[in-house]
Design a protein that fits this description.
There is one protein chain. The protein contains 16 helices and twelve strands. It has 429 residues and is α/β, with parallel strands linked by helices. It has two domains: 160 residues, N-(1-d-carboxylethyl)-l-norvaline Dehydrogenase, domain 2 (Orthogonal Bundle); 230 residues, Rossmann fold. It has an eight-stranded mixed sheet with strand order 5-2-1-6-7-8-11-12, with helices on both faces. It has a four-stranded mixed sheet with strand order 4-3-10-9. A hairpin with a 2-residue loop joins strand 3 and strand 4. It starts with 10 loop residues before the first helix and ends in a 16-residue tail after the last helix. Pfam families: ApbA (PF02558), ApbA_C (PF08546). This is Putative 2-dehydropantoate 2-reductase-like protein. Belongs to the ketopantoate reductase family.
């Protein structure tokens, strides 16, 4: 696909530049889901039950890598599951480790004014950053990652020696396309790479400004899970017959999440999972870049005529890509949840719910830090190229956001030495 037209040939975009909680879960086809992913079974430790897990499978530890409300909420709920070993938070930032000690080595969740904390043997933190005398060799069986996609690869390099084909990694992130990137960079050998589970949370969560290891639950929701097909790069004889141990490890992780009550988790086939994920991904791909382009808070976007026009153009392009995705086969269900009208309605509704708050992407751009644009708009651009669809406006906003980051970094270098754990934005695909 050729390059998009320059700014001078797109007057609406040029004029715009010159001017300048989560949705409720939708209904899904539960019958199809249960048929494709029969993991939503009642958990039982009774050895007489047909679905009782082997004793050695009950005590596996879940590791969590992330510094956001999703990480702390998930860790809090897993810590309350007495059938598991204490959940372990992986920390590679010294200031975060200090906060853990100052806050009494516990993770908390607020539901209104009510606080619930898990610690004292149910939640632990492990330093995995530089300066450790003896790096741990403890194998990681089950890992949940809520870090932004753009820094996940760098963070995993600190623990890559603890990950292999017995590991299952659950990615609960805003973007898509990271699995392919991890396989290409960290796990090129198909026989040794981990299993993956894609996660999407519909709960509305927020930070607690008084506590680093805390999350506010504004509105309950669900954790939608999809186990990525294993072995797409393997020979057919291996693809369809993975070792029993590896199948058990992946299934055990799914069952662990599904049977942890506070997570409200369920397993779904790829189509039904995408139906839940795509509206949120569309919002992040349309509204977040708009906030950066306008350099403003969410509430000022609807009042800008040029912004609304460009947002509609972005949405139209994303809709065309979604409708052409071969993973989505049930046309009536896709139109109901991901049709152009449905996407526009959900995007506007979520924008109003944001109120006068500031975009996280804008905050990071102002700080000269990376953003996940390559896994938001960039994901759709990659899929569009595969499908032969042109998405010039999405290509344009990706360039604009990256240009803003580069400009801000140059400004900061002229004032103070630039030092950050973050990596600069580079194309992920």
């Amino acid at each position: 696909m050729g390059r998009y037209d320059p700014f001078s040939e797109r007057p609406s975009l040029r004029r715009l530049l010159d001017d300048v909680g989560e949705q409720s879960p939708y209904e899904i086809d539960s019958i199809a889901d249960k048929k494709h992913t029969p993991i939503g079974l009642t958990y039982s430790t009774d050895p007489r039950g047909p679905w009782a897990m082997p004793q050695e499978e009950e005590c596996k530890r879940v590791h969590v890598l992330g510094y956001d409300p999703r990480a702390y909420f998930i860790a809090h709920e897993l810590a309350g599951n007495l059938h598991l070993d204490p959940v372990k938070l992986l920390v590679h930032k010294k200031n975060v480790m200090r906060s853990w000690q100052l806050e009494g080595e516990q993770v908390s969740v607020w539901k209104g004014v009510q606080r619930s904390s898990q610690g004292r043997g149910r939640a632990e933190a492990e330093w995995i950053g530089r300066g450790r005398d003896e790096p741990s060799n403890e194998h990681i069986d089950q890992l949940i990652v809520t870090l932004a996609c753009g820094v996940t690869t760098t963070a995993l390099q600190n623990i890559i020696h603890r990950i292999d084909n017995r590991t299952t990694i659950c990615l609960v992130q805003d973007g898509l396309g990271l699995v392919e990137h991890l396989n290409a960079t960290l796990f090129p050998d198909p026989t040794r790479r981990p299993h993956y589970v894609l996660g999407h949370m519909s709960a509305s969560l927020g930070y607690n400004k008084q506590w680093f290891f805390g999350a506010k639950l504004r509105q309950p929701g669900k954790l939608f899970l999809h186990a990525v097909e294993r072995g797409v790069d393997l020979l057919p004889t291996l693809k369809f017959h993975p070792p029993v141990e590896r199948r058990m490890n992946a299934t055990q992780f799914l069952r662990t999440l599904v049977t942890t009550p506070g997570l409200h988790a369920g397993g779904y086939n790829l189509e039904n999972w995408l139906i839940q994920k795509l509206p949120a991904l569309v919002f992040s791909s349309v509204i977040e870049p708009m906030a950066v382009v306008l350099d403003t808070t969410y509430d000022n976007i609807p009042g800008n005529e040029h912004a609304i026009r460009l947002a509609d153009e972005l949405l139209d392009e994303l809709f065309n890509v979604i409708m052409a995705m071969p993973e989505l086969t049930n046309s009536s269900k896709v139109v109901e949840h991901c049709g152009l009208g449905a996407l526009r309605k959900k995007t506007i509704k979520r924008l109003w719910e944001k109120g006068s708050s500031q975009s996280d992407m804008l905050s990071r751009v102002r700080a000269g830090q990376w953003v996940d644009i390559d896994y938001l708009n960039g994901y759709f651009i990659k899929r569009a190229r595969e499908l032969g669809i042109k998405v010039p406006q999405n290509e344009a906003v990706v360039d604009i956001v990256k240009a803003r980051i580069a400009k801000r970094r140059n400004e900061m270098r002229n004032v103070i030495p630039f030092e950050s754990d973050d990596v600069p934005n580079k194309p992920a695909f």
